[in-house]
Amino acid sequence: MKRNKLYIIGVLVSFLFVSCDKDFLEYEPEGVLSNENVATADNAESLVVAAYAGIANDEMIGPLTHQWVYGSVRSDDAYKGGGGRSDVDVVDRYEQYNLTIPDFGDWMAPRTWTNYYKAISRANFALTVINDIPDAEYANKTLRQAELRFLRAHSHFMLKLLFKKIPYIIEGLSQEETAAISNDVSNDELWNTIAEDFIFAYNNLPQSQDEVGRADRNAAAAYMAKLRLYQAYEQNDQHQVTAINPARLQEVIDYADEVTAGLEADYGNNFLDGFDNGPESIWAAQFSINDGTKVSRVSFVTGLNSPHGSALYGCCGFHLASQNMVNAFRTDAAGLPLLDTFNDADIFTTLNGDGTVTPAVGLTVDPRLDHTVGIPGRPFKYRNAVNTTGDMVYNFSWARDPGVYGYFGNMKEQQAPDCSCYVKEGPFVGTSKNVDFIRYADVLLFKAEALIQLDRWDEALPLINQVRARAAVSTQRQIDAGATDIYNIQQYTTFPDKDYAWKALKFERRLEFGMEGPRFFDLVRWGEAATVLNAYLAEEKTKRDFLSSAVFTAGRDEYYPIPQREIDFTGGLYTQNPGY
């Protein structure tokens, strides 16, 4: 149970920032406040905390934190799930890459656009106020400016991953000046603009902060490693990767080396209540429960994704692992992934009369499978039973529409129903568990990726092995709960050449972050989205009829369309992404 001082304050000052349905360019904190009557150090502190709250003010239909819709379902990791294709059909369109309409009302991507710019508005309003406070009257002035610029950069970074062409909005602009900012700037220029805010944060934040949840230099360094990695893969206007910039790759290595952190002892700790803000968590959205506020600050962003047929949860069966994702966890006799042949045969496909599935004969798997996917007959969330609340072995009956989406569930975003972090609001489940934006395993693999692309794959080997070694010791919870011990994972002894190292790196990222959301963005960064996803669809549609018409269109489907209402609002100033 968390009592996060930072966000208790955030709720107390939330009246400064009432949500509204206006366009983000019109959005500003409501009330009678102005720069003149809030420009004090005490009020500035509250405005900063309110800006922190903004980055996690998301919802099921306008996600900001967890990327299960945008990065998992749009990739080969997961299916939409739910009660058939018409259930939240906008996500079905995303899964089918049927995106020729650049607006879907106020659901999902357009709403996420608005929610991110509302968060940016909070940061900019706070910066405008703080910039006017004399240094002598505000000892924390530069520190708080750095935090706010970090928050602003984070929101713009996420918007760029989703939409590519976005306006970068800073503080101190009039309504007219804001409305005149174009979204049509070069890819490199926009990355550098975002980087300016992160670099300011990196140069002005302490390595760590006493108050949980505040940005620090560590987080800024990790974000700069991530940003330079994306920037290194230079894209043309059709989203094709035309070059890989070695200078940017070296920056990835340099910034990654500045990050001081470590891996959790057990992989599962990252996804369990009680381990928030641990050694692996570099930057996370903070949530709380029973925190002294009228309404606890829990996250409902994955509220649709609980097992549907279980009385313990209730609704709604979204975000289900694909057969391809499950197959990816298979290992060979040497305990290594089947880099090229993992999808040649399906695993866990023999359905028994008791609602369980039988593994293939001789099957061995990476233990991260049982941290990531709910599989009939295997313990769910490391439990066989939850006190008196019922059976916790994942069952076929928990699948809401197995005839359409199969029966593999999601594990990481779920918590056991007897967790003190757990809230049920009607049929929807929320928790106070943090959502990590970057964890240390990310940083290790960012660096490994840069090293491989710089032809230094021998240096990448121990980094990838460090991640695999942690996975290898992350088995006891599952075994104690009764999982059959079919685990076999070992470290790589060598990378014989760059091609092998590159495949190993990409596969490791998929296994490590399965169904957490980065998969789609990785594929776009590498310039491999069309090739990988169309190959996935060609095979997967033979197993799942609902994908029969799905096809990924290169040069269009790498990014969402700019919401049409934003183009209309700016009188056509914004440039639409190609293909829409």
UniProtKB/TrEMBL annotation:
Its localization reads: Cell outer membrane
Indicate where this protein is primarily found: membrane
- Stretches assigned to the RagB/SusD domain: 279-580
Highest taxon in the source lineage:
Bacteria
Keyword DNA damage attached: no
Which keywords fit this entry according to its UniProt record? Cell outer membrane, Membrane, Signal
Q: Does the keyword Membrane apply?
A: yes
Cite the SusD-like N-terminal domain residue spans from the record.
94-229
- Which InterPro entries does the record associate with it? SusD-like_N, SusD_RagB_dom, TPR-like_helical_dom_sf
Membership in a protein family: Belongs to the SusD family.
Name of this protein: Outer membrane starch-binding protein
Q: Which organism is it from?
A: Arenibacter algicola
